[in-house]
Amino acid sequence: MDLNQILIDCKNKIDSATTSAELESIRIELLGRTGLINKLFSEIKTAPNPREYGQELNQLKNNLEELIKNKSISAVSVNENVTNKKLASPAVALAKVGHLHPITQTERQLNEVFRNLGFSLYDGPEIETDEFCFQRLNVPSDHPAREMQDTIYINEPNILLRTQGSSIESRLLSQEKPPFKAAFPGRVYRNEKVNKSNHFIFHHYQGVVVDKDITLKNLFGTINCLFKSLYGPDVKIRFRNKYYPEVEPGVGPDMECFSCHGAGCGICKGAGWIEMGGAGIIHPHVLKMAGIDPKIWHGFAFGLGLDRWVMAKYNIKDIRTLLGGNLAYKPNEL
Ligand SMILES: [Zn+2]
């Protein structure tokens, strides 16, 4: 049974409906209790591959329901008395294919900004070794900073789910010959209790630059450029001192809240500023471990936490929503 051909035939039939009564009788003919779809379902047992056939049938049923729904909204109900010709155009836009996940959209937007700044894009393994996730980033096994990242181990003590996108940075430093500029989005994991504001899966967007004569000025310029590209030329950025073992000095960029412009609101929790991530000048010891001479080469690294950024942008109140499967989600209902 060629289900694709059935879909095409049914689509033509639905398209040809000119009144709601006609559309309803087509609906009964296709999806009613004794309709075409149920008849096809009753034949599942005789199909050569029943499981696959059942899945395809379900898909066909969903497609037909969608086609009829779209037709009734976009055409028939508002154009009850118009000609077939006029009806044809709105009903053609049938396939509702959804859209990219907000995290993916934001990642791609950032990729574009960094490509324009001459960065190459990289990916790395989500299952990492202790060496690349910690040791090569200046976090030996007895370092207190490990306490800040509750790690999920695949095989203790060496194989783990990466806790930070910086693991790609340590791989890059050891593999690429400077100078280079690289950006890398990625999913990371920590053993966090899952609730409205914490999840054990989240997303980092990180970058690293290694060249001669790199200073904090280059870092500030890049971060400024990033936020101006995303939020317009009037965006205000400030940097605060922060501590990360792999950089010295470490800084954290805050952006003036795009919603209240510094006055304080729900999105920025009254602060007027939104914390955007961490950055700093790569520690000479990290370069040395990667075989890069810190007397010749310098670098900066930065990391942004994508989840909170996306939540603020789309007014999403519960981080679990980002990884949930409920397509009916409406942000303002939470
Ligand atoms: Zn605000």
Write a structural description:
- The chain is of the alpha+beta class and 334 residues long.
- The chain has two domains: 3-80, no CATH class; 102-322, Bira Bifunctional Protein, Domain 2 (BirA Bifunctional Protein, domain 2, 2-Layer Sandwich).
- The protein has eleven helices and eleven strands.
- It has helices at residues 3-15, 20-31, 36-42, 50-76, 84-92, 102-116, 130-133, 166-175, 216-231, 284-289, 306-314, and strands spanning 120-121, 127-129, 153-155, 159-161, 180-189, 201-211, 237-242, 247-256, 273-275, 277-282, 298-305.
- The strands form two sheets. Strands 1, 5, 6, 7, 8, 9, 10 and 11 form an eight-stranded mixed sheet that branches.
- α1 runs parallel beside α4, α2 (20-31) runs antiparallel to α4 (50-76) and α4 crosses α5 (84-92).
- It is elongated, with a radius of gyration of 27 Å.
- Bound molecules: zinc ion.
- Residues 257, 259-260, 264-265, 267-268, 272 line the site of zinc ion.
Topology:
Elements: H1 3-15, H2 20-31, H3 36-42, H4 50-76, H5 84-92, H6 102-116, E1 120-121, E2 127-129, H7 130-133, E3 153-155, E4 159-161, H8 166-175, E5 180-189, E6 201-211, H9 216-231, E7 237-242, E8 247-256, E9 273-275, E10 277-282, H10 284-289, E11 298-305, H11 306-314
Parallel strand pairs: 1-5
Antiparallel strand pairs: 2-4, 3-4, 5-6, 6-11, 7-8, 8-9, 8-10, 10-11
The chain binds zinc ion (ZN).
Give the helix tally: 11
CATH fold description of the largest domain: BirA Bifunctional Protein, domain 2
Residue share in β-strands: 15-25%
- Could you say how many structural domains there are in total? 2
Fraction in helix? 25-40%
Structural category is alpha+beta
Shape descriptor: elongated
Q: Can you name the CATH architecture of the largest domain? A: 2-Layer Sandwich
C-alpha-based Rg, rounded:
27 Å
Stretches where pLDDT is under 50 for at least 5 consecutive residues are 76-88
Helix and strand succession? HHHHHHEEHEEHEEHEEEEHEH
Number-wise, the strands total 11
Average pLDDT figure:
86
The CATH class designation of the largest domain is: Alpha Beta
- For the record, what is the CATH homologous superfamily label of the largest domain? Bira Bifunctional Protein, Domain 2
Distance between the first and last residues' Cα: 45 Å
Largest sheet: 8 strands, mixed
* Small-molecule components bound: zinc ion
